[in-house]
Amino acid sequence: MQTQILERMESEVRTYSRSFPVVFTQARNARLTDEDGREYIDFLAGAGTLNYGHNNPKIKQALLDYLAEDNIIHGLDFWTAAKRDYLETLEELILKPRGLDYKVQFPGPTGTNAVEAAIRLARNAKGRHNIVTFTNGFHGVTMGALATTGNRKFREATGGVPTVGGTFMPYDGYLGNATDTLDYFEKLLGDKSGGLDVPAGVIVETVQGEGGINVAGLEWLKRLEGICREHDILLIIDDIQAGCGRTGKFFSFEHAGVVPDIVTNSKSLSGLGLPFSHVLMRPELDQWKPGQYNGTFRGFALAFTTAAAALKHYWRDDSFERDVQRKGRVVAERFQQIAAWISEQGIEASERGRGLMRGIDVGSGEIADKITARAFENGLVIETSGQDGEVVKCLCPLTITDEDLLEGLDILETSVKQALS
Amino acid sequence: MQTQILERMESEVRTYSRSFPVVFTQARNARLTDEDGREYIDFLAGAGTLNYGHNNPKIKQALLDYLAEDNIIHGLDFWTAAKRDYLETLEELILKPRGLDYKVQFPGPTGTNAVEAAIRLARNAKGRHNIVTFTNGFHGVTMGALATTGNRKFREATGGVPTVGGTFMPYDGYLGNATDTLDYFEKLLGDKSGGLDVPAGVIVETVQGEGGINVAGLEWLKRLEGICREHDILLIIDDIQAGCGRTGKFFSFEHAGVVPDIVTNSKSLSGLGLPFSHVLMRPELDQWKPGQYNGTFRGFALAFTTAAAALKHYWRDDSFERDVQRKGRVVAERFQQIAAWISEQGIEASERGRGLMRGIDVGSGEIADKITARAFENGLVIETSGQDGEVVKCLCPLTITDEDLLEGLDILETSVKQALS
Amino acid sequence: MQTQILERMESEVRTYSRSFPVVFTQARNARLTDEDGREYIDFLAGAGTLNYGHNNPKIKQALLDYLAEDNIIHGLDFWTAAKRDYLETLEELILKPRGLDYKVQFPGPTGTNAVEAAIRLARNAKGRHNIVTFTNGFHGVTMGALATTGNRKFREATGGVPTVGGTFMPYDGYLGNATDTLDYFEKLLGDKSGGLDVPAGVIVETVQGEGGINVAGLEWLKRLEGICREHDILLIIDDIQAGCGRTGKFFSFEHAGVVPDIVTNSKSLSGLGLPFSHVLMRPELDQWKPGQYNGTFRGFALAFTTAAAALKHYWRDDSFERDVQRKGRVVAERFQQIAAWISEQGIEASERGRGLMRGIDVGSGEIADKITARAFENGLVIETSGQDGEVVKCLCPLTITDEDLLEGLDILETSVKQALS
Amino acid sequence: MQTQILERMESEVRTYSRSFPVVFTQARNARLTDEDGREYIDFLAGAGTLNYGHNNPKIKQALLDYLAEDNIIHGLDFWTAAKRDYLETLEELILKPRGLDYKVQFPGPTGTNAVEAAIRLARNAKGRHNIVTFTNGFHGVTMGALATTGNRKFREATGGVPTVGGTFMPYDGYLGNATDTLDYFEKLLGDKSGGLDVPAGVIVETVQGEGGINVAGLEWLKRLEGICREHDILLIIDDIQAGCGRTGKFFSFEHAGVVPDIVTNSKSLSGLGLPFSHVLMRPELDQWKPGQYNGTFRGFALAFTTAAAALKHYWRDDSFERDVQRKGRVVAERFQQIAAWISEQGIEASERGRGLMRGIDVGSGEIADKITARAFENGLVIETSGQDGEVVKCLCPLTITDEDLLEGLDILETSVKQALS
Fold it and tell me: Among A133, A207, B172, B406, fewest CB within 10 Å belongs to which?
């Protein structure tokens, strides 16, 4: 495989190509192929961007049909038939069945753009600058979003410009099982000299992907919603990684029965890995004036098309959800077994997650890296997350076949045993 | 045309659909078609994103070929054959022939992302927080980029959070023809109590697109480069709108013979309107540590593919450049005539631009709006720019046929006369 | 009493004159007299500025002696005999006996100025922007200091400019007695994605005056010092209110046996109520370049003179400390009785404090206000603190006579009973 | 002279003691005496803090009278007889005769505190965060004030925290005599994409003291006032150094006939060098809520007393003003002669100033330092200002005797000739 020009010309900022130093060429559902023809099962799935698998034939066909004629590809924020079809589909298949009433903003096709728009919306609506976010939260790295992202790797790379306007609170479980971390948040909200500027909004992931597959309890989320209501604070759920079915529901917050004021989606939203994002907001929050937020690619018609196709093929009824939940249980069970085995070796390990967003916490990044390196040798692409990379995580396509899922799990188990023996 | 759902569900932030309230469906080169089958000549071209026209068949074919097999579509920042091909092509056809030696970062597929990465790179490299930018500059609206964007519409919509780390200097011509605005910048640089924090970098567009087709003189750009060198400041050229041939050269700064330390490209970079951007940097500036800047869609293989195809088809020799320059002269001449006619009506008007990035300044947004509204009725999509929208601008596809170009110009002339009579 | 011009001309920002709407004219030790000749016992003492009482004759005599000749009064940062005498006295009577080795900065004569200098010093020394501060902390209201001050009254009055560079942690006891709040701080320090930017310094009051007479445990302070050492973070003790003997030691941190890297003093430092402050720093931290921090009144020779006199008269041996401790016990005992009585009335109340910095927490500002209003009627000036003004606090002069102390306590007790009956 | 302890214990931040490395002990009017009994004429006068001279006997007597009884010295923001007397005197002798109607805030006794309060007031009143300030302006170094101070020495010593909320415009004359710098400001105000956030206020010195005795033209100031009125921007005159008679009028803005919305005074306000400041504001701007800005020393009764005495003795009629103007002409004439002589030596030099705030610009700090060092040897304390310290400035007491003034000028002339021969 020719990699010289890649090593020479691409910035040192590259990361995944260090863990998986091969040139990938082809991919189908949960299988990746490198240039030498070697196949890998993919438990990373574009970091949660390929919930419907690589080259999903149903979604891809919609793209090919669209491209077959000279349909408009790039449409700024024009009205296009593709956008209209997406909005209709979103309303019909997703919002209405869930009793949700949202307006939709297309802020530019990346998650960080959606977060920038969402927190600006909250600030403008409430006339307050502060946004509460949580330990180990990840919401993007552009400067506005970065104020809500906990990772020092990014926070220390701003060239000395401190972020402005975010305050971190402890996420559910951060202080141990005995402590409800919202007690602290609520106490600070009620404290006139506690140093917490009353926030315009709270931004939260129901399951923290980059932060280490940390799972917020459903009661905790419900209580958080209640605190927000009581203090006139907007609840923003960042569903960029946990949404689009990843946790076993279209929106990850459905499990908790909360109704956010603002929702951000991206990653798997386009269905095929195309850049795409939207912000959903309660209609009364839509106080934007024309053009107050913009971006060149906010009308990428190919993504509207594939996104609508994904909804149409997977979200007409609850069968897809149920299948994801079933696979989630398979992974959970197997991860628990693996974690138990690791613990038996004297390395404390535990399983956690929701739906098909699951991880094994092995306590150290070094151990996790050994496992994932061995897995890659054995034909499995799997990554870590968490502050130290200590969680081996499974973000496999939701559409993975049972055969591939089981084979992937087998490889992982083997790799764990090889790595830790 | 069904527009109810669009009006009901899409956020009030929408803009272009207010000026052009139709549903567009198809598009080919410089022609747009709405749902009722009406055709429009497109002098907007995705705000400079469609330099090669809508549905460019050569570029599109590369996309279709790529999609014909299960080639990887979304690759995070994996090494992929598509990325490698893009880098090889970029080096061979663009960088080497121009004597440029740059490393390449893919920071996420939007221009604002590229700017965020570029200014962070400059700050980290120089250990200073300030970035000098220019009046009427536009570099994106995420909070980091917004510090360098002059438009109050965006700056006042941050929900009360001031931007940090940008200082505005007067752009070339801002203080009239008699004043070299760099005198002020240079004086401040040398003044220990002038209030200017020594900047890490200067970010500049050689022609300001959103700002009103303001054209920096070649001597001014050369002097700016000299000032940067002398004061150890990095020169960042934001070529997101002016690059990819728009001004008659691949990079807009080639006209001035300057060599920036950092370059941002996006918009037309993918060739087909797909979200895509890169940051070019002198190799010694590439001090990123792995993963210090990230984003989900930084390895969008479809865009690598179409971007490489665009380079291969249009940039093997200088024939495309020469054709753009020729068309630029056609537009310039006609715009001068139109401007002269307007001036004769007692409304002072003037033409300006470089290559096919040209405008007629009619002095007020109200008048410009009348003209573009009439043009739309007459079958021409054309937009305004400038602080008050006072410049009617032509950003037609570089690939526009002579017939369409002339017809578009005819429509514009007719519309001007109708609007101002 | 003529108050019209005061009401008409003085800004609405005035506060104490609302609680005590009389014109004060004379004052001696712990007694204030208003224009009508009415006397009040003073349990406020300039909010801790008059530890040695009003018009302390020994200190005042030094001032009069100094003024008797044409000694220099205002000396910028010249070397003056008055400054030299102060430094010698400080070293001889305070630093050496306590085994402390500090350099001294005179940053301007107010506490907030000292805090601005201290946190800037820490940031410059460590090359990090963040300063950790604590819930209910008060460190001044100029924009730099305000980043470390918890009170919303000030934080919300900045005209929309968010403070930059401070992060709040829970103070000792904030989460109840069962929780050591430093667990949270330590966890965040060790968490690479917890959102805590590694701080340059921690700023803390050992007893929070404005925050509600919250007392940090000695073990907690010791542990905090250890955490700072372990993580290479500077420990800044803000001893502006708690210092100069208020807690029964010259420096309030002596009780805990910690040695701060930086100390701020002001308020009672001049001994007579003259504006004065200094910053003490470990010598190796003194990396200021000449003139990097300035202010017109940093060489106020009258304050050097009275400050030296105060040290000479009260700090030659430990008799003053012991007397303060004794009086502190008297107040503590009486406050406990009063708190117990209040609790018996069904209003939960408790006593807390260290030395002569003591308060009764009555749970609500409304109740506390009733008590202090009644006390004022009865001839006692006493104020509240805490986020809701819920703590009736005693900051009487340390030099108060036993008679006045007991009379003041009697008045308070009577007032409590009148107010709550 | 014993200086060891001063060198050992005082922070390296000290400055004036480097230029004048002696221990000063006594001082009277315009004469300073060091510990060895050597006398110096004082052309620095506490950097403009001692307009009425050292140990002014009339003002000092008021202090001694006040101290003779147990009058209250430190009064927080209580109503005191001393404060009332100051307000009455200020109204009667200063405000009324000038037709000014202001409310008064005592924000803490330093200039930077007054500036912090003033800009916060403006921001709160207008609901905008930006404050426009000018090149070479100096308004203090606490973080809020520093946003409006141009000097890099301070701006680069914040430990990496950028200031927020200030924008610099070119001061009068900054771009040469041919350019009215307000053209640029006005253009930016009217430019919707020029990058200037519409300011809440403009803060300006009519003569820049630290910035190099730069004198704003009276027409320029008048035009600035007009621009502020037209754009609903508050005009804040920082009269901390130029006020209290320094320019030949009590307020320096009287010359131009402008009426600021907000005024800051400090330095010579107390008359005797005691820390003191106030903020004057149009009554309708006094929207502070009780206690929104505070500080321990905002009721320093000794300063109220001396400040009232200074007004009573010097501002009952215009004789003092006229005397200052006369002396100003003496200095101006002599400075012109000296500047002419310097220019004859091939070093371009020029005189400038207003009233007794005057300087000779010798073009380089090195030359200026030679002159002031030689002057000190010859018995004259005189300092430099300007971005490079290139201006030898005279800020002698306004009360200086004609003999001392002439002797000081003679020494300066001799020193210039010695230094440059």
Answer: B406
Q: Report how far residue D372's alpha carbon sits from residue D186's, in angstroms, rounded to the nearest whole number.
A: 40
Q: Which of B109, B112, B290 sits opposite A18 (nearest CB)?
A: B290
DSSP state of D13: T
Burial C146-182 (b: 16+ CB within 10 A, else e): bbbbbbbbbbbbbbbbbbbbbbbbbbbbbbeeebbbb
Q: Nearest CA to C183 among C238, C220, C232, C236?
A: C220
- Output the CA torsion D237→D241→D242→D247 (10° steps): 170
Query: Between chains, do B135 and D188 touch, taking CB under 8 Å as contact?
Result: yes
The whole-number pLDDT of residue A1 equals: 84
Query: % helix / strand / coil in chain C, to the nearest 5?
Result: 40, 15, 40
Does C135 contact A168 at a Cβ distance shorter than 8 Å?
no
Token reading at D404: 């001392």
What's the DSSP call for residue A176?
-
Which of A108, A138, D142 has its CA nearest to residue C296? Answer: D142
Contacting residues of B for A32, CB less than 8 Å apart: 72
**DSSP-assigned letter for residue C141:** S
The pLDDT confidence band at residue D1, using thresholds 50, 70 and 90, is confident
CB A250 within 8 A of CB A269: no
Q: Which helix (H) or strand (E) holds C278?
A: strand C278-281
Distance from the C332 Cα atom to the nearest Cα atom in chain D, whole angstroms: 26
Identify each DSSP E strand in A247-321 by its residue range: 262-265, 278-281
| Ramachandran assignment for C87, one of left (phi > 0), alpha (psi -120 to 50 degrees), beta (any other) | alpha
Helix (H) or strand (E) segment spanning residue B112: helix B111-126
Calculate the alpha carbon distances from D352 to D215, D245, D367, D414 in Å. 7, 17, 17, 20
Q: Which pLDDT score, from 0 to 100, does residue C1 have?
A: 84
Query: Alpha-carbon distance B283 to B104, whole Å?
Result: 9
Query: Which parts of chain C register pLDDT below 70?
Result: none
In C, which residues are within 8 Å of A137 by CB distance?
A: 195
- For D261-297, the pLDDT digits (tens) are 999 999 999 999 999 999 999 999 999 999 999 999 9
Query: Residues D285, D125: contact at Cβ < 8 Å?
Result: yes
Strand bridging mode D23-28 / D31-34? antiparallel
B173 Rama sector, left if φ>0, alpha if ψ -120 to 50, beta otherwise: left
| ipTM entry | 0.98
Number of B to C CB contacts under 8 A, please give it: 5
Q: Do B161 and A165 touch (CB under 8 A)?
A: yes
Q: Which residues pair with D203 in a beta bridge?
A: D236
Strand order in the sheet with B201-204: B103-105, B278-281, B262-265, B234-238, B201-204, B131-134, B166-169
| Residue A367 vs residues A349, A361, A371, A391, A415: alpha-carbon distances, Å | 11, 10, 6, 9, 12
Whole-Å CA distances, A210 to A165, A240, B294: 21, 11, 12
